[in-house]
Design a protein that fits this description.
Helix content is about 45%, strand content about 15%. The chain folds into 2 domains: about 180 residues, Serine Threonine Protein Phosphatase 5, Tetratricopeptide repeat; about 110 residues, Nuclear Transport Factor 2, Chain: A (Roll). The protein has a 4-stranded antiparallel sheet with strand order 3-4-5-6, with helices on one face. It has a two-stranded antiparallel ribbon with strand order 1-2. The chain is rod-shaped and about 170 Å long. Helix 2 runs antiparallel to helix 3. Strand 4 and strand 5 form a beta hairpin. It is α+β, with helices and mostly antiparallel strands. The protein is built from 12 helices and 6 strands.
Length: about 350
Amino acid sequence: MHAAASRFGLRLTSLAAQCLTVAALSMTTLSVRADDIADVQKLLAAGKNTEALQKADQYLNGKPRDPMMRFLRGISLSQAGRSAEAVTVFTKLTEDYPELPEPFNNLAVLYAQQGQYDKARNALEMAIRTNPSYATAYENLGDVYAKLASQAYSKALQIDTRSAVAPKLAMVRDLFPKERNSIVAAAGGNANQPAPVVARPAVVPPPPAAVLAPPAPVATPPKPAPAPVIAKVEPKPEPKAEPKVDDKAAERDVASAIERWASAWSRKDMNGYYAAYTRDFNGGKGSRKDWEAERRARIVSKRSIDVEVSNIDVDIKGDKATVRYRQAYRADSLNINSTKRLEMVRSGGKWLIAKESAGS
């Protein structure tokens, strides 16, 4: 029997031999039963579903458990579009005769028509469990799995249009060309090879179309912005850098100047002593002249003078220097050892004393 289900095409199988064996004890005569079954099959083949169903019901009134006629009655109901009643018939057959795989197969056909592919899969797995050599059930099961895959791929595309399953969906759909628009159920028959009965196709809604994302608009590259006009800036003349002073050399020059000053003081060389100071230095005496007179009287009056400098520490800042050092002064009976501080400036290439004080 061909029972309709979208995009499935399956081979016919014969239930006659097994059904006749199971029902042998309930028949009055085998020949009478075979004639009745053949009559119903001929009516179905001619498309006379109403007459076939009436004859099957008449027969089953006397033999309600006959598996073959019940099977044909299920086919009649299927072709008449009474799928719910057909499901009931085949379900009851699987319960009463679980050793027969064909009722499971035809039950799967009806479930597939209704889009209940999980139930169809379960029924086909039962058919295979009943008869592991049932090739038709294997083929049907493969088609059901393909249908489930098609639904899953379609759902994936609906959720995420960027999904890469579109080629897979197309490949699965190619398995079922439009001309194969029916699922083939197991056919009832007898030992005389009765002709298969073709059922009226039932339309099953196709799987939801995949929602494809609209092509992304091609972005028009923005026009390049005009090149900025860079104003010509005349470079400012760099100020002439002061000659870099070699601090180490300057420190040595300062230390040498202090040592020459101490030496002139020790020798009572007043010209050399005065030359160690700036021209405006007055030592707090009011005038340079007064300071020079006071220093001459003090220094020259001593019988001997010895001035030693040590621990000289020089801090250079440009043309100025701060000097800290230890001074040992011995003159006649005096012996003084103290810390001194000098503020010096560079003038005319020489380091001169601008200010002197005791302590740090």
